[in-house]
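worker-03 picked up job from queue 'complexes'. Input manifest follows; two sequence lines, order preserved.
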Amino acid sequence: MPKAVQYRANSIIYFKGDQSERVFLLNAGKISLSYVDIESGQEMRDLIKTGEFFGVKSALGHYIREETAVVLQDSTVMVFSVPEFEQLASKNTRIITKMLKVFSNQLRRIHKQVQTLLVSDEQVNPETGLYKIGEYYMKNKRYAQALHAYKRYLVYYPSGAFATDVTAKIASAEEFLSRYGAGEGPAPVMSAAPAATAAAAGLAPSVAAAPPPAAAGGETSDLAQQYYNAVSLVSQEKYMEAFKAFKKIIDGGADAEYSTKAEFEMAKCLFYLKQFDSCIKSFTAIVQKFPKHPEMKDALYFVARSYGEKGDTAKAAGLFKKILTMGTEDDPVIRKVKKALRALEGGGKA
Amino acid sequence: MSPAAGPDLSMFNRFMVTFRKGDIIFCEYEPGDTFYLLQAGHVQIVRIIGDLEKNIDVLNPGEVFGEMAILEEAPRSATTIALDEVKALEFNRENFEVLMMGNPQIAMRLLKLFIKRIYDQKRRFMILTLEDVEAKVADVFLMLAENQTMDTSAGESIEFKTSVEDMSHWAGIPAGQCREVLNHFVAQRRIELHPDKIVVRNINDFARFVGSRRKHQEK
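worker-03 finished. Artifact:
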């Protein structure tokens, strides 16, 4: 049975480095968790809200405590063993789904932090990466796997840099698979320089007529294909083409999810196309239509940057400061905003 | 076929997908919007590193994969291949909550998986923030030792089934640079480099080395 325990102000429930299999729930009082932020090395302090669990990750994962739990005011805490906690959570899955959301956010954050630290050759752009997987399996005569990777490539990048090459490889892989079988056959001729295929791709109308991929485990809808294709144009900095591709998705009467996403991306393209007035107008419309847009901060960021580009630094600074109130230090948008704000203020003084 | 272990998921049969032996379930780098609960068969997780297909893990029935798609449509971080006939339940973000609500055991398993992922990523972050290249490589050995949950207190030599490419991946440095560091460690008689394994003579020596570098950096 979980038991209620009273803690006096200034006492410590557990120390960083402790190993324990106890999960806690704050019933009443005030408790903070202090820890060192792995990115900045700064001492951080999070307040626990009443009704909130703490010590869950280390207890469930059998890791040492990463933070020290300090009692700030006299508090009542429910103490659970791991089995007791699991029993409670299994009767109330909301507890778990809520935690899953919190942990998934933490995971997303740390994942991004890791990515920023990786040297550039560890970071392959997804388009080239997918192509290279096909190449690897083709080279090793594993035609079925090569076919899968190549076909997925065409789903997402039907007019990508390697599309012509991939279309030809699909034909060879199919032929080799039926004629020789996996692991057999002549050494496949591997790719020409990607630059050459990239140039050829622009001239290859046949690419769009590539065979539909046999999507294993879930068809990707045409709409998703179109959308990813447009997103890939953005990553290639082909903003005009991307803008048109997104517009086509909306004009085609896409469902709400994709037309909303496409609308957002179009507004972003406008910024990169230096159509600052149109960009402001588009994002303002989006924000008005979706006052709780999940990417509100990003939308405002582009509006602020547009004002900045137009020379209206006061408006830009005002908006940047507003965004700062909407998130915390660990949010990449917030860091971007801080940087932009510094640039703006630095520029003002110069 | 009923799952080998765990809760009754027969009401989710409409989410069942089947793969034949050798089928790729998803490819590294393709956008991910689904995740899977393996019900029958085995799934191999691989990454193509350089010119090698690296086995990351083999999953058994009852395990979850592709779960990062619950977070966002980020590119897949590995390729998954069916080792035999595979049956799996395929979910996306929309039907995920329904699944969780009715299946606390799965929800709990996923929670623990996320916890492990968070720790793994944090651990990797710690390696990458080391400035000294030798310390990075040494810290990769420490991480591998932690994952093997071995008793390192005796200070005896430990064998790692790892390669230069693997080590360079974890340390976030080019393979050539990683090989140089490892050769230097060999010259110092701290490790032995074999084709299929690396033997660390004294892991505590590396622990002290990394610890002192980290402290030095904090100053």
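worker-03 released lock.
The first strand of chain A starts at residue 3 and ends at 7.
Residues 192-220 of chain A have pLDDT under 50 and may be disordered.
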